[in-house]
């Protein structure tokens, strides 16, 4: 078993602060505007990012999050039977895209909110490509270099860190800030 050193709290807090300041209020407001314009919000991610995607779907579907009420929101990774059926039939790399296809090809205004700390999660990247092919907006939460997901995004909320222990908590803070912009009138 590999031994890991615990980074001192003050160093971690400094890294978190640097990560949070990578994203501007303008970008947060743009992400909120894209989400606000949608009728359906799809979210997705893997591992810790899947829990953030689930959190985002919950946050935007609550009726009190914004004037006029919540959105229809679906976290693709919360629908385990459908996701695993697609993974079984076509492989994990295409499972999210296939799960989202009916939403993306339908008549509603759909936005994808995709979380990938590395920006390279193949299943999330394929999902974002499919969303863009269908003319849908993509809000991407990324870290590390963020590519290729970052380049597929309509709005990129990028954390300039190569540390999951920084990227994931900053993504959580950013989703709360997007939610704050959604609550505010005229953001």
Reported CATH architecture: 3-Layer(aba) Sandwich
Q: Radius of gyration, Cα only, in angstroms?
A: 16 Å
Q: What share of residues is helical?
A: 40-55%
Estimate the strand proportion: 5-15%
What is the CATH T-level topology?
A: Rossmann fold
C-alpha end-to-end distance: 49 Å
Structure description:
The structure is a single chain. By secondary structure, the protein is of the alpha/beta class. The chain has a single domain, classed as Rossmann fold (3-Layer(aba) Sandwich), CATH 3.40.50. Helices cover 52% and strands 14% of the residues. It has a five-stranded parallel sheet, sandwiched between helices. Helix 3 packs parallel to helix 8 and helix 5 packs parallel to helix 6. The protein is globular, with a radius of gyration of 16 Å. The mean pLDDT is 93.
Layout: helices, strands, pairs:
Layout: H1 9-20, H2 25-36, E1 40-44, H3 48-61, E2 72-75, H4 80-90, H5 92-104, E3 110-116, H6 122-133, E4 137-142, H7 149-152, E5 155-158, H8 164-183
Parallel strand pairs: 1-2, 1-3, 3-4, 4-5
Helix pairs in contact: 1-8, 2-8, 3-8, 4-5, 5-6
Give me some keywords for this one.
five-stranded parallel β-sheet; 52% helix; globular; single chain; Rossmann fold; 5 strands; 8 helices; 187 residues; alpha/beta
The gist of it:
With 187 residues, the protein is α/β, with parallel strands linked by helices.
């Amino acid at each position: 078993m590999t031994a890991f050193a615990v980074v001192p709290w003050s160093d971690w807090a400094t890294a978190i602060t640097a990560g949070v300041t990578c994203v501007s209020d303008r970008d947060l407001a743009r992400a909120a505007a894209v989400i606000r314009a949608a009728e359906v919000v799809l979210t997705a991610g893997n591992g810790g990012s899947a829990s953030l995607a689930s959190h985002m779907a919950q946050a935007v579907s609550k009726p009190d999050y914004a004037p006029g009420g919540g959105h229809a929101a679906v976290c693709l990774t919360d629908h385990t039977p459908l996701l695993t059926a697609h993974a079984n039939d076509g492989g994990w790399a295409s499972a999210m895209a296939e799960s989202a296809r009916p939403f993306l090809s339908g008549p509603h205004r759909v936005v994808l909110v995709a979380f990938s700390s590395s920006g390279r999660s193949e299943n999330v990247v394929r999902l974002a490509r499919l969303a863009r092919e269908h003319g849908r907006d993509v809000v991407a939460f990324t870290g590390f270099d963020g590519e290729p997901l970052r380049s597929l995004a309509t709005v990129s909320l990028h954390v300039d860190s190569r540390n999951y222990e920084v990227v994931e908590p900053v993504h959580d803070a950013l989703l709360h800030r997007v939610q704050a912009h959604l609550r505010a009138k005229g953001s």
